Amino acid sequence: MTHRVFVSAGEASGDRHLGALLDAxxxxxxxxxxxxxxxxxxxHGTELLAHVDELSVLGFSEVLKRLGFFRSLLKRCVSEIExxxxxxxxxxxxxxxxxxxxxxxxxxxxxVVLYVAPQVWAWRKDRRPGIAQVIDHLMVIxxxxxxxxxxxxxxxxFVGHPLLDHAAETQPGFREALxxxxxxxxxxxxxxxxxxxxxxxxxxxxxxxxxLAREGVVRVVSRAPGAPEECFEGIxxxxxxxxxxxxxxxxxxxxVASGTATLETGLHGTPLAVVYKVGLLNWLLARLLVKKQPxxxxxxxxxxxxxxxxxxxxxxxxxxDRVARNLLFDQTTREEQRAYLSNxxxxxxxxxxxANAAKVVASYLTKSGGA
Length: 371
Description:
The protein has helices at 12-25, 39-42, 60-65, 67-84, 95-105, 128-134, 145-148, 174-178, 195-208, 210-214, 244-250, 260-267, 280-289, 297-301, 317-329, 331-341, 344-347, 353-368, and strands at 2-9, 30-37, 47-51, 88-92, 112-115, 137-140, 155-158, 186-190, 218-222, 238-240, 253-257, 272-276, 309-311. By secondary structure, it is of the alpha/beta class. The chain folds into two domains: 2-160 and 352-368, Glycogen Phosphorylase B (Rossmann fold, 3-Layer(aba) Sandwich); 174-347, Rossmann fold. Strand 4, helix 5 and strand 5 form a beta-alpha-beta unit. It catalyses: a lipid X + a UDP-2-N,3-O-bis[(3R)-3-hydroxyacyl]-alpha-D-glucosamine = a lipid A disaccharide + UDP + H(+).
């Protein structure tokens, strides 16, 4: 019995989480998949209407520049769903697009499951009633989120954080691959995955750590899939295109763009700082909307502000140098962070997110009967 499912992951992290969920579903269910995603989602035979490389944007102004593209894509997705009538609509994160899509197809009566909740704890709690109107089942990944959505007319399940399922997936021989001697300190620089993010952060991170590099610290820059190649050409640092977990697990410290990578770095116990910078207009709009501080997931997950954050105007070469030195050489800073980070996994509920999420999805497939 074949089950037709529309899927939507608009960013690299969503593609990875949704791919792991589909892995966990296994071969027990015969699926016909179509929608939005990346290489992980496509590996399950999904017919992609658009790839995540086309979808990743950062900030309000960048969304406005591509508004015509997203309107056209939304219209196409709605049309495909209306024609194919899937048994389930499975959305992963990417709320700006996915919630609009859910609203546009609500009249069809197809169950809609959202994996990873919008961050209402950071801004606009008043969105919750609207979310409940268009989502049938919300799978949340932070323990405290479950209570935030209780009392609204939709099912809510805490499934665990997907990063915990693959936090230990590291590759051996990291230093050997880059020919880094054991005695040298390694500083990982993670400028993000979106092109605009990399262009904003990488030059500043390189400038702020150049004195450390002259002093013998080895800088290793992570190049995420889809990050523009020209940003990494000719830089005086190693470029790592492999497993992110291998980089952060073997680094002595890391400077990490705000996002899920801060949490992944923290789960490996690597001392880190959160960095973030966008255009002035985006920043002013964000400050009007976002009330929650700090902004780094690694702090939010542990309900702490221990991990330093260099945000917007605070992201200067001088501050980067100062913070990176503390992370690399100050034993008190390193021990405090390691003690805090050692409890992160427990606070997030442990492993099993993909399997738990797959059970929720399987329950809807069983009800649908398939084609």
